Fold tRNA-dihydrouridine(20/20a) synthase.
Amino acid sequence: MPSPLNRTFSVAPMLDWTDRHYRYFARLMSKEALLYTEMVTTGAILHGKGDYLAYNQEEHPLALQLGGSDPKDLATCAKLAEARGYDEVNINVGCPSDRVQNGRFGACLMAEPKLVAECVDAMRQQVSVPVTVKTRIGIDEQDSYGFLTDFVETVSAAGCDTFIIHARKAWLQGLSPKENREIPPLDYERVYQLKRDYPQLSISINGGVTSIEQAKTHLAQLDGVMVGREAYQNPYILASVDTELCGKPAVVSSREEVIGKLLPYIGKHLADGGRLNHISRHIIGLYQGLPGSRAWRRHLSENAHKPGAGIEVIENAIKAMELTTN
Ligand SMILES: Cc1cc2nc3c(=O)[nH]c(=O)nc-3n(C[C@H](O)[C@H](O)[C@H](O)COP(=O)(O)O)c2cc1C
């Protein structure tokens, strides 16, 4: 049986974006969404100086995304992650950046399904939380359906029952990671086909989803929808996830309520010596699409990075927004 975590809606791992402050903020709007960390490399965890596994308990359910391709290192990191309470460990087989390719991980691992299977196997021997894989539908010229199914069959034979598929291939040469999120065309049908052919696997789709309605369309065919940029740039979409996709009560009823719940967290962060901007940069999209959102955005961008900036910057951003709408 696929894992018991609710995968209906998940927020994608996004480097520099889905840090623990963003995730705390996201959790204020949805209890049900499964949240992913930014990719953390095994090298950072095993040899880095910082605590790369730190998070707030409120963030659960929370998956750690790992970047790496050494089965032993991945297994050690998975074990550390489980001990710290992560609900899932995910391997990045989708990132096309040069840096990641040099480390022989990310999307280039699609060409090495046996190695990915070894990684999954080594990790599963160490942990009982789900070990999952986020990948693409292909890489470079290797973009046939057979290439994808070979990969999925080999990796699932090692015990991975959950795949998150970014429904476009990656070009490993010549395109930046940003271009690789826009230029290769999306092929949702291919992911639907995968689910039809491997109904025993949990298959989530990722790529280009910007509304709850679109999520519903995918969920009619698949186990889950993973949303990246929209969940960051228009985060209030999360407030509809529990009610509209999961049949659960709403967690919040307004954006102001979200801010009200975030303020104590910001206050504690400031009291601990943190900067306002570390958190405020993640809430800039909260009023996306509403009148006054420009004033909100501008006030935060111009003031939150200043030394000594405090909660009053948020309060004044609300006032600036109200002035433009009244
Ligand atoms: C700023 C940024 C950072 C990203 N970092 C990661 C990452 O660390 N790991 C990963 O698997 N994908 C990463 N991605 C890709 C997203 O997880 C996702 O697959 C992609 O954005 C497509 O989904 P979307 O169209 O809903 O944004 C990143 C995307 C963005 C925009």
The longest helix spans residues 255-271.
